[in-house]
Design a protein that fits this description.
The structure holds two protein chains of two kinds. Chain A has 20 helices and 20 strands. Chain A is α/β, with parallel strands linked by helices. In chain B, α2 packs across α3 (about 60-75). Classes of the chains: A alpha/beta, B alpha/beta.
């Protein structure tokens, strides 16, 4: 930072006053000089005029009385006046007297002329003229005198201002001294400022500064105490936070962060991730308190198991997930054995909650390398769960990474297709078995890829669900189907998942499109009869709302595993679409025939229409008819097309 | 009756001389002696070191003349002037070249005054007249009471060689000349 040049306030005050005063003086001088010069000149003219006026009657009388010698006397007396340079007396246009002074003779140019008309005494009759040539000497003297006085005034002013400046400096010197003293001021140093005894502003400032010092000292002591206290508190809290950051509060085990921190320092280690199977059920059944208690006890037992192994440290990664971090890699078989042994040990463990016995199982994923250990052990764990194995070691051959990669590519492809409007409905007719005519169409989603190949939803629907694109696909299908069937006299069905029905945004969108395209009485919503459908009040509310609008509801894949006729009654559906797994072997599978027969019978009693899908040959079609299924859908009759048959 | 009245006035004028304005007489008696003092060549006109103010009158105006004389004497008796005043009363019939005078003041007269005027001019005597009309005859000063007292001076009668008044006098007098009629 640049140091500012010191600029004296006293100097500024004095210079400002001096400048203003001198400026005023000069302006006054210039103005008054002009006025005075004119006034001085006027005075001289008046003096000359007075002289002329004084002698004018005498000259006039003497001209009138023709006493020329007297006129001579008068002008001789007059010419003695040093200011009068010449006198002319003219009688009736004739010069009768003329006299010049010596000065005038020496050619003095600085003069002026005063003329007076001479009139006859007691009359206005002009009898002559008196001409006075008057010197400007007097005027010049006055001007010189005036200038000298002004210069003296300016000089006096300058001297006065210098003295004034010195006086002001003297008055303000204590302020400088105070500032010098205060330069070295620090909170702990008490500076005794003099001038307290002065009975003026300096004294007031000095007193105030002394009081201020006292207050600052007191305040600083208070601040120091507060700071010390705060520092202590901050240190305590920092320790607490550090502990919270790296220690799991429930089990007291090092947490995920701690593991990240630690894993970086390990050069050749391994990792096992332990996940408690279906721990959610324990929480739901016994409550979270019991769940936490079991987790605590489980962690203690794990601690006990590995307490003697200095290379293994136990961590808690998340709710039901623990990790065993190996600081040093054991032989592979030993590593596997540790994992498998642990699974066995856990199966033997019994936990008690109130009077209930609770046993748990775990799945373990392992990574026998420290590089990317957490991700790899996690992949292994997920694969183990998927394959319903208790223990799986990460292996490059698992191709899990490839699967992830493929999924990501599909997400990309899906997003691109949405952007480029390459998601389209294909239409598969559903035939009425009594008339063999088309009763309705099912709108099936297809993705058209860059090579214009038609991609089945089998490849992308699950990925769409994971990547939250599912609702977008539903909206596209709803809109395109409604537009397509707006002016076609066919009923048509659209598949909805429970997630769609629970999504208010999607439901509102469906309602809007139905009303916009006026298809309410022709649209059928096919809801997958999956786990949980009956548990949602929202599903029931959605069905009620849609039916009020005139829509119809079908339960899709009925009979696939969770079939519950009671729920069907509650949901008030219109169609039952029998699950394809029952239909595809219907011609040979007797038990399938019994189940389908039961479903049809039940549906008939409830006045519901049944639909058999996946009918792919004549035999099955015949069997479907034989079992009195109302409608048939399948490749045997028609594949899904990009347009309806009539079109 | 008218005849009696006319006779009465004739007799009165015979017995008592001319009718004078007393105020005018007093004014003239006050001012004219002072005008004499304004003559710068007064010392040449002194008679035995005195200013002789000669009042010339008709016989019937003796009383008036003596009154004027007394008034002037009374005024200048104790006045601290440089020169003493002497009043000289002279009847027109008695006036001659022997009559001593520094200044002459004439009252009204039936007689010719030309001789007197010529004598005065010759001697450089200052002349005053009661009646302004006498200025046409050659008298120098007269005085009239108008809004104030106005001194008249006949410019043509001013003999500058023997009479030289101070300039200020010329400032206060009213000049008469031939052109004035």
């Amino acid at each position: 930072m640049n140091k500012k040049k010191f600029s004296s306030l006293s100097n500024k005050i004095v210079f400002s006053i001096a400048f203003v005063s001198l400026a005023i003086t000069i302006v006054v001088f210039i103005i008054s000089s002009k006025i005075n010069k004119e006034a001085f000149h006027q005075i001289e003219i008046e003096k000359a005029t007075i002289i002329a006026q004084t002698i004018e009657p005498l000259i006039a009388v003497n001209i009138y009385l023709e006493m020329e010698d007297k006129i001579n006397q008068i002008i001789l007396q007059l010419i003695e006046n040093p200011n009068i340079l010449a006198i002319k007396v003219i009688k009736n246009d004739k010069l009768i007297n003329y006299i010049e002074s010596k000065e005038y003779k020496s050619d003095i140019k600085e003069s002026f002329v005063v003329k007076r008309t001479l009139t006859q005494p007691n009359s206005t009759k002009t009898i002559g003229e008196l001409v006075l040539v008057y010197s400007n000497k007097g005027y010049k003297k006055l001007i010189a005198k005036y200038t000298n006085l002004t210069l003296m005034l300016i000089v006096t002013l300058v001297v006065l201002f210098i003295l004034f400046g010195l006086y002001v400096k003297k008055l303000l010197r204590p302020l400088r001294e105070i500032s010098k003293l205060l330069k070295n001021y620090s909170v702990n140093k008490n500076i005794q400022i003099p001038f307290i005894s002065q009975n003026n502003e300096i004294g007031l400032i000095s007193n105030t500064l002394n009081n201020m010092q006292q207050k600052i000292l007191q305040y600083s002591k208070k601040q120091e105490n507060i700071n010390r206290f705060l520092e202590e508190k901050v240190n305590e809290k920092t320790l607490e936070l550090n502990a919270q950051l790296y220690i799991d509060a429930l089990t007291g085990l090092p947490n995920r962060f701690s593991m990240f921190h630690e894993i970086d320092k390990i050069k050749d280690g391994a990792l096992l991730i332990i996940n408690i199977d279906d721990f959610k059920e324990i929480n739901d059944f016994f409550g979270h308190v019991a769940g936490d208690s079991i987790l605590k006890k489980f962690s203690n037992r794990l601690k006990d198991i590995f307490k003697d192994n200095e290379f293994i440290s136990l961590k808690r990664l998340s709710g039901d997930e623990f990790a065993l971090l190996f600081a040093q890699k054991p032989p592979l078989q030993e590593f596997i054995n540790i994992g498998e042994k642990l699974i066995e040990d856990v199966e033997k463990m019994l936990f008690f909650h109130e009077k209930s016995e609770v046993s748990i199982r775990v799945t373990i994923g392992g990574a026998y390398q420290i590089e990317g250990a957490l991700e790899k052990a996690d992949i292994a764990l997920k694969s183990a769960k998927k394959q319903q194995k208790s223990f799986l070691l990460y292996d490059e051959k698992l191709n899990i990474e490839d699967e992830y990669k493929k999924n990501m590519e599909w997400v990309k492809k899906l997003k691109k297709a949405i952007e480029r409007d390459r998601i389209v409905p294909y239409f598969q007719p559903i035939f009425d078995n009594s008339t063999d005519k088309i009763a309705s169409y099912e709108c099936l989603i297809r993705l058209i890829d860059d090579e214009d190949s038609v991609i089945s939803p089998y490849y992308f629907l699950n990925i769409a669900k994971k990547s939250r694109l599912y609702s977008t696909l539903t909206k596209i299908m709803v809109e395109k189907s409604c537009i397509y069937f707006e002016y076609l006299n066919y009923a048509f069905s659209i598949n909805l998942s429970v997630e769609d029905i629970l999504d208010k945004d999607v439901v509102n969108y469906i309602k809007e499109k139905i009303q916009t395209h006026n298809v309410a009485n022709r649209i059928i919503f096919e809801i997958l009869e999956s786990e949980g459908i009956e548990e949602y009040e929202e599903v029931s509310a959605f069905i009620g709302e849609m039916k009020r609008l005139g829509c119809r509801i079908a339960v899709d894949d009925f009979g696939s595993g969770y079939s519950n006729f009671e729920h069907l009654l509650k949901l008030n559906v219109d169609y039952i679409k029998i699950d394809g797994t029952l239909i595809k072997n219907l011609d040979k599978d007797i038990s399938a025939q019994i189940i389908v027969g039961t479903i049809v019978d039940f549906a008939k009693r409830l006045n519901l229409l049944t639909v058999a899908e996946f009918v792919h040959n004549k035999e099955i079609f015949e069997k479907v008819k034989e079992l009195n299924v109302d409608r048939t859908q399948g490749y045997f009759l028609s594949e899904p097309q990009k347009s309806t048959i009539n079109n | 009756m008218k005849k009696i009245a006319l006779l009465f006035f004739i007799l009165v004028s015979y017995v008592y001389g001319y009718t004078y304005n007393k105020l005018l007489l007093k004014a003239q008696a006050s001012i004219f002696p002072k005008i004499i003092m304004l003559d710068k060549k007064l010392y040449e006109k002194l008679v035995d070191g005195k200013i002789v103010y000669t009042i010339v009158y008709e016989k019937n105006d003796y009383y008036t003349a003596s009154e004027i004389g007394r008034f002037i004497e009374a005024n200048y008796k104790n006045a601290s002037t440089k020169y003493a005043y002497k009043i000289n009363l002279v009847e027109f019939s008695e006036f001659s070249s022997e009559t001593e005078a520094t200044a002459i003041y004439v009252l009204n007269s039936n007689n010719q005054v030309q001789e007197l005027v010529d004598y005065a001019k010759k001697k450089g005597i200052i002349t005053f007249a009661y009646d302004i009309n006498y200025l046409k005859s050659g008298f120098l000063f007269s005085l009239m009471l108008e809004k104030s007292a106005v001194i008249y001076l006949n410019k043509d009668n001013l003999n500058s060689n023997k009479i030289d008044f101070v300039d200020s006098l010329y400032q206060i007098v009213n000049f008469l000349d031939k052109s004035s009629g």
